[in-house]
Design goal:
The structure holds two protein chains of two kinds.
Chain A lengths: L1 H20 L8 H28 L11 H11 L3 H34 L1 H16 L6 H8 L3 H25 L3 H9 L4 H38 L8 H10 L3 H32 L8
Helix pairs in contact in A: 3-11, 4-5, 4-7, 4-9, 5-7, 6-7, 7-9, 8-9, 9-10, 9-11, 10-11
Chain B lengths: L14 E12 L6 E12 L3 E6 L5 H9 L6 E6 L3 E4 L11 H11 L4 H14 L15 H13 L5 E5 L7 H18 L2 E6 L2 H7 L2 E5 L6 E6 L11 H22 L1
Parallel strand pairs in B: 3-7, 3-8, 5-6, 6-7
Antiparallel strand pairs in B: 1-2, 1-4, 8-9
The chains are: A mainly alpha, B alpha/beta.
Chain lengths: 290, 259
C-alpha cells in the first residue's frame, strides 16, 4: 500500500520536474524565417549588380565587350525562351548528375575503406588530400588522350574532381566520432559492421554532408571547365554555348550564361546547406530560435 | 597435464560478481601506476553495492574489469550474468529518437520491430518517460536523459547493471528523484547493481553495502553494511549518520596522501 502511494508520488514529482525542465524553444513563423533568410541575399545581389553597372558607366571597357545589366538581363530573358538553351541545360545537368553520382559511389567506398583500414590510411590518406588540391583542368590533357573528345573525358574529370572531397568528408566524419559514442555503442552490444551501421556512420553524417557539399562545388567547376574544352558535336551544353557566345562576340549572351552557371551552382549548394541545417537541428546542435 | 574442474566458487549461484586477488597496473616498469591492488570483492545476486573512494581509487577500472572491457594484470574476475554499463553522460545517440535509442540494443540483438517497439515503450513507462518516445535526446532535461539511458541499459536484458557516477552531473533535486527511481527499478527487476560514486550520502541512501576503496593503489579499505529499511530518504538521520562515519574514514584515507 505504502509503496504504491510512494510510486505514484514519484511519478508525479518526476512529471512535474520534467515539465519544468524540458522546454522546447519556439521558432519564429515560416514566413518570418523565409524573409529573414532571403533579404540579405537580395541585398547582396542588388549590391553586386549596382557595382557592375557602375563599372560599365565608368567607361572602362566598350559596351560590346562588357555590357551592363540593362543589356544582359534582356539577353537572359531571350535565352531562356529558346529551346536550344533548355536542351543545353538538360545535357549539362545530366552530365552533372551522372558524374556526381559516380563520384559519390567511388568517393564513399574509398573513404570508408581508408577510414576503416589502417594500412590503407597510411598508404593513400595524404594522396586523397593531394588529389583534392589538384586543379581539375590539369586532368584534361590526360582525359582527352584516354577518352578522346567525348563525354567520358568530361565525366572522368568530374569524378576525379569531386570524389576526393567526398572521401575526405567521410574519413574526417569517422575520425571525429566522439569516443563516448564509440563506448556507448560497444556497451550496448554493437560491434563490427553493426557498430559502423548504427553508430559510426550516423555519427559521421554531418561531416560527410560537408564533404558532399564541397564535392558538388568541385564537380560543377570541373564540369564547366570540361564543357569549355571538350565540345561534343550535336550535344549543346551550357559550357559550349558559353564558348560559342564568345566566339561570335555575343558578350551579353555570354554574361547571361555565366549568370545561369552561377545560379545553378548556388541552387544545388543551397540544397546541401538545407540538409546540413536540418540534421544539425534534429540533433540539437543549433539554437532552436535560429 | 590434467584438466582441472572449475573452482567451486564459479558455480555458486548466489554470487553475481567475484574479484579474487585482482590487481591492475597501467604502464610498465618504474612508471607503472597501480590502479587496483589485491582486491577481493564479492557481490551477491540482487545486491546493490556502492563503491566509494577519492580520486584515483580505481572505481572506474573496477567497473571496466567487471564489464569485461578490460582484463586484470593479476587475479581472477568472474562475472555470472550479462552486464550493462551506464556512465555520467547519458550518451544517447542524437540521430535517434528516445524510443529508437532504447530499442537499439534489441535491434542489435536481432529482435523484431514490433517487439522492439512494445518493449521500448514498456521500459520508457517504467522510467516514467511514457509519451516521450518520439522526442529527440536534446529535447530532454539531464535527468530525463539519464532515465532514458537507464531504459536503454534495461533493454539489454542483463542481470547486472554497472553504474559509473550516473547521477554525478545532475542537480540535487533531480538526483533525489532518480534515487527513488533507481530503487524502484531495482526492486522491480531484482538486478544486481554496482554503483560507483564519490558522493558518500548517495551511497548510504542507495546501497545494501558500501565498499570504501583507498587511492593509488586502490584497495578495499573498509566495508559498511547498510541495513536501514527502504524506501529511504537521503536526509534521514540514520542515513546521514552513516554517511558521516564513512566520510570520516574516507578523509583519514585522503590525509595519508597529504603527508
Amino acid at each position: 500500500m505504502a509503496t504504491e502511494a510512494k510510486e505514484q508520488e514519484l511519478a508525479a514529482e518526476l512529471a512535474g520536474l520534467d515539465a519544468l525542465e524540458a522546454h522546447l524553444g519556439t521558432r519564429p513563423s515560416r514566413a518570418r524565417r523565409a524573409w529573414s533568410a532571403v533579404w540579405p541575399k537580395l541585398a547582396a545581389i542588388a549590391l553586386a549588380v549596382g557595382i557592375w553597372q557602375l563599372v560599365v558607366w565608368s567607361g572602362w571597357k566598350d559596351d560590346y565587350v562588357l555590357p551592363g545589366p540593362g543589356k544582359v538581363f534582356p539577353a537572359l530573358g531571350e535565352l531562356v525562351r529558346t529551346e536550344k538553351f533548355w536542351r543545353a541545360v538538360g545535357i549539362t545537368m545530366r552530365r552533372a548528375v551522372t558524374g556526381y553520382a559516380l563520384a559519390l559511389v567511388i568517393g564513399s567506398m574509398v573513404g570508408l575503406a581508408v577510414a576503416r583500414i589502417r594500412l590503407l590510411r597510411s598508404a593513400v590518406g595524404s594522396l586523397i588530400t593531394g588529389l583534392q588540391t589538384m586543379p581539375s583542368i590539369a586532368w584534361f590533357p590526360l582525359a582527352i588522350l584516354l577518352f578522346g573528345l567525348t563525354e567520358h573525358a568530361i565525366l572522368f574529370v568530374v569524378v576525379l574532381g569531386a570524389a576526393p572531397s567526398i572521401a575526405n568528408g567521410l574519413i574526417a566524419g569517422v575520425d571525429h566520432v566522439p569516443p563516448l559514442m564509440h563506448r556507448a555503442g560497444r556497451m550496448i552490444g554493437a560491434k563490427g559492421v553493426g557498430l559502423y551501421r548504427h553508430v559510426i556512420l550516423p555519427a559521421a553524417l554531418p561531416t560527410y554532408i560537408t564533404g558532399l557539399k564541397q564535392g558538388w562545388a568541385f564537380a560543377w567547376r570541373s564540369l564547366m571547365a570540361g564543357e569549355l574544352l571538350v565540345i561534343v558535336a550535336n550535344r549543346p551544353s551550357i559550357g559550349d554555348q558559353l564558348q560559342f557566345a564568345r566566339d561570335i562576340h555575343a558578350a551579353d549572351r555570354m554574361l547571361a550564361l555565366m549568370i545561369v552557371i552561377l545560379v545553378i551552382g548556388i541552387v544545388v549548394d543551397t540544397v546541401f546547406g538545407r540538409a546540413d541545417v536540418a540534421i544539425r537541428r534534429r540533433w540539437g546542435l543549433i539554437d532552436p530560435s535560429n | 597435464m590434467t584438466l582441472t574442474a572449475p573452482p567451486l566458487s564459479t558455480l555458486d549461484t548466489t554470487t553475481a560478481i567475484s574479484l579474487r586477488g585482482v590487481s591492475k597496473a597501467f604502464g610498465h616498469g618504474g612508471k607503472a601506476v597501480v590502479a587496483l591492488e589485491k582486491i577481493n570483492l564479492d557481490v551477491a545476486r540482487g545486491e546493490l553495492v556502492c563503491l566509494v573512494g577519492a580520486s584515483g581509487c580505481g572505481k572506474t577500472t573496477s567497473l571496466n574489469l567487471m564489464a569485461g572491457l578490460d582484463r586484470p594484470t593479476i587475479g581472477e574476475v568472474s562475472v555470472h550474468g550479462r552486464t550493462a554499463l551506464m556512465f555520467q553522460e547519458a550518451a544517447l545517440f542524437p540521430w535517434l529518437t528516445v524510443r529508437d535509442n532504447v530499442a537499439l540494443p534489441m535491434r542489435l540483438a536481432g529482435k523484431g520491430r514490433a517487439e522492439r517497439r512494445r518493449r521500448a515503450d514498456e521500459l520508457l513507462e517504467q522510467v516514467h518517460l511514457a509519451g516521450q518516445g518520439d522526442r529527440r535526446p536534446h529535447e530532454l532535461s539531464g535527468g530525463m536523459r539519464q532515465r532514458a539511458a537507464l531504459a536503454r541499459a534495461l533493454a539489454q536484458d542483463v542481470e547486472i547493471l554497472l553504474m559509473d557516477e550516473p547521477f554525478g552531473a545532475l542537480d540535487a533535486m533531480t538526483r533525489d528523484l532518480l534515487h527513488d527511481e533507481l530503487e524502484q527499478v531495482w526492486s522491480a527487476t531484482g538486478l544486481t547493481i554496482v554503483f560507483v560514486t564519490h558522493n558518500v550520502r548517495e551511497a548510504a541512501r542507495l546501497s545494501d553495502r558500501i565498499v570504501l576503496l583507498t587511492s593509488l593503489p586502490g584497495r578495499v579499505a573498509d566495508e559498511f553494511p547498510v541495513t536501514f529499511a527502504r524506501p529511504r530518504r537521503i536526509d534521514a538521520p540514520d542515513v546521514m549518520g552513516l554517511a558521516a562515519a564513512v566520510t570520516d574514514r574516507l578523509r583519514a584515507e585522503v590525509r595519508r596522501h597529504g603527508d
